[in-house]
Structures are given as C-alpha cells and as structure tokens.
C-alpha cells in the first residue's frame, strides 16, 4: 500500500495506529463490514498486508509532539473528519489520551482521556482503585529505592515487573522476572531501576497456578456501560509462567468475574475496547485483579466467532449508533500457532501437559489472528516478519544490558 493515491474519502472510515496482529484484527473486522480502513504502522507491518487495509503509512520518529502533528496533518490532508481512531498499544493509547481534546477534533475516539487511561494502565493506580471497590488484588510493593527493597520482609519467590507498559524498559520485553531470594531481588531491582521512575519497579506475590487460573472479561463499552462482552480463559501464553502475550485462549462462562469487571469499567467511565485480567488464587478461591487494558488486546479477534465483533461494535458506538447488548458464547478457541507451538512443545516434552490435552485443545471452532481464507497475504508474510522482530528484540535487549545501572 502507498500513501500517494488520490481517492475521495467520506466520514465513514477508520484509522488504526499499529500494524501488528492486534491491528490486523481491527482491520479485518471493519473491512469485512465495508468500512474503509487505513493503517499507520509503528510497531509491526503485518496489518498493512491485509486486503482490507486500503492504505498504509509509516509511523514517524521524533517526539510525541511530532507524532501528534503527523496524525492531525494526515487527517487534515486527507479530510478524515469523522473517522474512528484505534490506537492498539499502551504507547499509542497513551499518546491519544494525553492529546484527547486535539484528536477529538477530527476523529471519533475509542480510548479514554488521560485521567481514566492513566488509572487503567498503571497497576499501582488500578490496584488502589480495585481495593477501594472491594476487589481482590495481589500483594504488591512499590519501593522507591534499593534501601527500601533491602528492608522488605518477603516470602520468596516473588516477581519483579514494571507498573506501567507505557515506558520502554528491559522488563517489558520479558513481562516479569521471577525472583527466588533476597540477593537476586536486590540485583534485579538495581538492574531495572535506571529505566523506570521511582516507584514504577513493582514487586508482587506469585499467585499459584498456571493457565487454568487465568481469566479475562472483555467488552465493548460506552461511558462506563458494558454494551457487549465475553469471558475467557487464557490457557497458554509466552513465556508460559509470566507471558508477554496469550497463545491459546478459549471462551467460557466465568460469571465470578463479570460483576467486579463491570464495576471497574463503570467506576472509570471507560469507553471502547476493554479487557480486564484476573487470576484465580487456588489458596483462597478468589479472583484477583491483574490488569486493566483500555485498548485492544492480542486475542480480541476471537470475539467475532463468539458472536461479539468488538472492533465493529466499538466503531458503531463511536459513531453514535445504537447496538443491542450482546454476550459472547462459550466454546470458541483461539490460537496463535507461530508462538503456541513452541510453548506447547515445551509443556508436552516437560511432562506438564499431556499430548492428548494439546490435541484436544486444537479442535474446532478454532480462530487465529493471522490466517484467513479471505485475506491470505498476512499469513504468507508472518514468518519472515516474525524473524525480523525477534532479531530487533534481541538487539534492543543487548542495548539495554550495555547501559550501566544507576545507583538508587
């Protein structure tokens, strides 16, 4: 796709910020409904190969002000007044949140302004709000210095992770570090601290259990009201212990998380795509809040097969159209084969998952984020693009490790 084409556009269209498989799911959802979709590729490019991506553009470098100016100029030059804007990552959603009023001029928005978004994406604030609402959260600590870490009396193992996904840092590339003792905690805290503001390196208890204990409430919302939803179990992820992304998800009835998730959404007044993650603590039998994602998430493309096409429903809500409440049906499975094969292989070979369990999980109905009969090119391009991304990730990790640690 090239950006030198001349075509008439109307107020019926969508601009997706992000070219990865999350963006691809949005492009397909809207494109299959006849909505013109353009893509600004800033983290990956696979969405730009979709037949439903009418045009694609490269994300500019520079400052956030440069990026805001670029998007507003794009809207002005191509007369995108009234188009629906979909950021697909914490970073792009944060950009839209911080300039919500400016973007609200030309675009119809699907993510909340900064006041709500900041609470949702910062685990410190989300957990604080959750506790005020009477929702269980994991035990967590937010030390400001290495001295404070040294004074903590903890039961090991624990995990170390960033409180926010907005700031690029070495922890975000592995999701979390498992820490087995005090010396390792001091070492890893010192390693992570130079990349994050004080209080953003969090320590958290490990809730026992694997994928069988990981659940999500997903929804299309408008001003804190849930208009369509489903519940699911995030059975496998990569890495398996503390995954960056889900690799196998199945929709099922989990009524225990519906009310607390709806309470959070109403309290924050969230609009757009929302996923709220919980983990069932087998020690207490209670569901604990893990994350609040007020933007698209990796496995959202399961929703159309379950009867709730979230991106298109959010598109209609953003345009002021009425939709009937819809509840996703259970029994739909979603797998990202390129990553799930390695995860499942390790689980089977390690004796943690019977081969029969894996084969049973792959029975239809089975959805995926990349392959589609009506849109084959992204599947053709997935492996070379995945290889390039892994190389870039390794380079970034090497860059992080070469930087000296800052004393705290």
Word description of this protein:
The chain is globular and about 60 Å long. The model is unreliable at 1-8 and 404-408 (pLDDT under 50). It is 35% helix and 23% strand. It has 3 domains: 14-109, Rossmann fold (3-Layer(aba) Sandwich); 139-206, Dna Ligase, domain 1 (2-Layer Sandwich); 211-370, 2-Layer Sandwich (D-amino Acid Aminotransferase, Chain A, domain 1). Strands 10, 11, 12, 13, 14, 15, 16 and 17 form an 8-stranded mixed sheet that branches. It has a 5-stranded parallel sheet with strand order 3-2-1-4-5. It has a 4-stranded antiparallel sheet with strand order 6-9-7-8, covered by helices on one side. The protein is α/β, with parallel strands linked by helices. α3 (90-98) packs antiparallel against α5 and α5 packs across α6 (123-132).
The N- and C-terminal alpha carbons lie at a distance of 48 Å
SS field, number of helical segments: 14
**In this structure, how is the largest beta sheet organized?**
8 strands, mixed
Number of domains: 3
CATH homologous superfamily of the largest domain? ATP-grasp fold, B domain
- Helix proportion: 25-40%
| CATH class membership of the largest domain | Alpha Beta
Alpha-beta content class? alpha/beta
What share of residues are in beta strands? 15-25%
Average pLDDT level: 91
Q: Can you name the CATH architecture of the largest domain?
A: 2-Layer Sandwich
CATH topology of the largest domain: D-amino Acid Aminotransferase, Chain A, domain 1
């Amino acid at each position: 796709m090239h950006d030198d084409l001349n075509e008439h556009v109307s107020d019926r269209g969508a601009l997706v910020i992000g070219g990865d498989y999350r963006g691809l799911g949005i492009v397909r959802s809207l494109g299959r409904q006849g909505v013109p979709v353009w893509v600004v590729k800033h983290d990956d490019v696979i969405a730009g190969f979709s037949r439903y991506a009418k045009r694609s553009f490269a994300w500019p470098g520079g400052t956030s002000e440069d990026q805001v100016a670029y998007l507003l100029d794009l809207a002005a030059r191509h007369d995108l007044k009234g188009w629906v804007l979909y950021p697909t990552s914490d970073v792009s959603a944060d950009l839209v949140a911080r300039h919500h009023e400016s973007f609200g001029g030309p675009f119809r928005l699907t993510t909340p302004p900064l006041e709500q978004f900041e609470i949702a994406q910062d685990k410190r604030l989300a957990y604080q709000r959750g506790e005020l609402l009477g929702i269980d959260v994991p035990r967590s600590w937010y030390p400001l210095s290495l001295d404070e870490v040294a004074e903590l009396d903890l039961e090991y193992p624990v995990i170390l992770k960033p409180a926010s996904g907005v700031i690029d840092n070495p922890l975000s590339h592995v999701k979390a570090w498992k820490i087995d003792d005090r010396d390792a905690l001091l070492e890893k805290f010192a390693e992570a601290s130079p990349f994050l503001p004080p209080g953003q390196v969090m320590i958290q208890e490990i809730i026992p259990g694997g994928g069988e204990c990981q659940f999500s409430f997903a929804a299309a919302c408008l001003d804190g009201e849930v208009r369509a939803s489903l519940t699911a179990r995030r059975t496998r992820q990569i890495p398996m212990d503390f995954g960056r992304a889900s690799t196998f998800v199945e929709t099922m009835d989990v009524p225990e998380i519906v009310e607390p998730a709806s309470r959070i959404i109403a309290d924050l007044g969230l609009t757009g795509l929302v996923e709220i993650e919980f983990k069932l603590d087998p020690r207490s039998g209670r569901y604990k809040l893990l994350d609040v994602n007020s933007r698209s998430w990796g496995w959202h493309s399961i929703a159309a097969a379950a009867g709730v096409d979230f991106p298109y429903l959010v598109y209609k809500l953003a345009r002021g159209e009425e939709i009937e409440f819809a509840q996703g049906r259970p029994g739909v499975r979603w797998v990202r084969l390129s990553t799930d094969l390695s995860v499942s292989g390790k689980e089977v070979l390690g004796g943690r998952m019977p081969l029969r369990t894996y084969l049973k999980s792959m029975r239809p109905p089975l959805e995926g984020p990349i392959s589609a009969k009506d849109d084959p090119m992204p599947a053709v391009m997935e492996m070379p693009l995945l290889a390039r991304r892994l190389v870039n990730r390794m380079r970034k990790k090497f860059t992080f490790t070469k930087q000296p640690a800052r004393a705290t």
